[in-house]
Amino acid sequence: MPPESSRGSPRKGVAHGPALPVITAPRRPVSRGTIAPARSLRTLLEGHRVSRISVRGFAVASATAVTTVGAVVGVATGDPASNDLETTASGATLLADIPVGEQAQVQNASLTQQADAIAQGADTDAKRVAEEAARIQAAEDAKSKKAEAQKAADEKAKKDREEKEQIASRSAARSAGDFAVQSSYTVAQVKDIARQIVPAGQFQCFSNIINEESTWNYKAVNSSSGAYGLVQALPGSKMSSVADDWRTNPATQIQWGLNYMNERYHSPCAAWSFHQANGWY
Fold first, then answer.
1. How many CA atoms lie within 13 A of 87 on its CB side?
2. What is the C-alpha separation between 213 and 45, in angstroms, rounded?
3. Bias category Basic and acidic residues: which stretches (predicted)?
């Protein structure tokens, strides 16, 4: 506190009149050179993306501080600029002047906007994830359907091919009666007759069975069972359904063996598959 003698003494630049009361400065005095105008502070804070409520509160508080301190200093020094500061303060709306209820409304509105923005973002993300999942599922379903369709087509093609082979195997190019009877036959001659009776697509399977049963010997006899001929018919007399010369004519034996394979297994190749699995046919 200044000495008692200086309280009422006139000061240069101040009109004579009653002595003004001395106002005690704030605890943390602020020099005039460090106080920024309210507009500059608002611009600075908004440049750093501070919310409008924070900017407004900071600006009002700053204006209040500037006005108060400026008034004190101006009155004490007689600076005319104090009048401008007082005018600024008088035109500013202090945060404390806003009713408490309205402050809460402003804060609630801001929080509501933030919550709405977050919810909208979450909805957008959820929608994007759902769309991506649906796209992946649709692709998987399409792939599965395509695989099933391909499998069905392959099975149908295989079935059609087998049916054609079976029909072809039943429709030999020539029959046993088309060949002249000889007194004897070589293995090569017997095979040549078989190629003309058995369809081309089934001949290899037919040949495999004959190799296993008789090694192309049209007079082969199984000593234990009595099976006879190229196809080891049991009994051999079954082949008489084709012709009575079944004992000496390989063409008769080949024709009977082809008929048997077609009737029992649908084709020589099916008969060969059974033979491989069981050792007989």
1. 5
2. 103
3. 139-167
